Amino acid sequence: MQLPGCAVPLDDIFLPDELARRVPARPDHLREKLAVYDLAALMADHPDALLPRFVDIALELTGGVSAGLSLFERDPKPGVFRWHHVRGSLAAFEGVTTPRGHSPCGVTLDRGAPILAVHAERYYDWIAAASIEVPEVLLVPLRADPATLLGTLWIVADKVGHFDSGHARAMTELASFITVGLRIRDVEMKLQRAVAEQQTLLHEMSHRLKNVIAIADGMVWMTAMGAETPEAMATALSGRFQALSRATALVRRNPGTHPLPAMPELSEVLRMVLEPHDAAWPGGPSRISLSGPAILCDERAVSGIALVFNELATNAVKYGALSVPHGRVDITWSAMPDAVELSWVESGGPRIDGPPASESFGTTLMTQTVQSQFDGTFRREWRESGLAVSLTLARAMLSDEADEAA
């Protein structure tokens, strides 16, 4: 096969039978065994160093001038290879990507066996365009299993005829060892993430429960102060507890458990979250104002927004503007092409002399939520008149339809 514009056919580039014809030099079994021990030790103690050391060993055992790993990335489809741990003469190309369907690595994975390529720049225009000359390349596939592509180890020689079947054998054996190590590493990383998420969840649940109890306790006492009869108190408390329940449901970690009937607007989400806090002092006007354009929030965004603003409101009820009858909170937002900017400003509450001595878990939770879930920023300003918070949320993290509603 020869593509338009290619100088030579593909069959002149890849020589699948040439490796078998090349008689290997006397194998150095001790050196190969030591290499396996070296990799095994790294797998156990320093898994992050496993792949770069694998490339170094490949260069040492084969005598190539450059080597690296092309690891397969499925997105964007149909996927690309990204160069990692590049050593030797091509080290400057660390991090570049090459196409899955038009590269020596793609051919190697398709054939599922070590392969030799000679002057691949004659066929692949992107290699020639980078002014790369590759007299000979030994490519070895990395597969976790027949259906799972990991990538390719490639080693470049500075002359044709350098690699032999012994090199292919040794690299294939090490590659098989590495794929096992990669699978073990992936399992360990998933377990570590699961444990970390579980610990955060337990801490968060404890924190949420304490806040809910504190809010409920405040509601009881504040409602009792303004209620003329037990029946009036029961009625008021019932409505406020129901609002608190709706807000608490929005703050759950898995918003898919109880999906909302339709995609809500940002103002609806904020109103539902803030309603029980606004009702803490009976008989008075609303002390929380909302102002901003219509912005849709899908389920993935609702939970994070609810969590952040429930936390801000809880702190305002406990320590800030909502802890006194005449305090208030003004929330505004504006839509930019790529982001939504929100402002939370407290006033009329206790005087603030400065920031707290230490960060609470709630502050850490809000900051991490804004940064990780919304690719945004979270800033606080401790004004004498009250806390002011500025948030920036990426619009793409709120809803794909946000632009239509803005």
From TrEMBL:
Gene3D superfamilies according to UniProt: 3.30.450.40, Histidine kinase-like ATPase, C-terminal domain
Pfam family, one: GAF_2
Signal transduction histidine kinase HWE region domain sequence ranges: 204-294
Domain of life the protein comes from: Bacteria
Presence of keyword Amino-acid biosynthesis: no
EC number: 2.7.13.3
Keywords: ATP-binding, Kinase, Nucleotide-binding, Phosphoprotein, Transferase
Record field: catalytic activity: ATP + protein L-histidine = ADP + protein N-phospho-L-histidine
InterPro entries named among the record's database cross-references: GAF, GAF-like_dom_sf, HATPase_C_sf, Sig_transdc_His_kinase_HWE
Protein name: histidine kinase
Lineage: Bacteria, Pseudomonadati, Pseudomonadota, Alphaproteobacteria, Acetobacterales
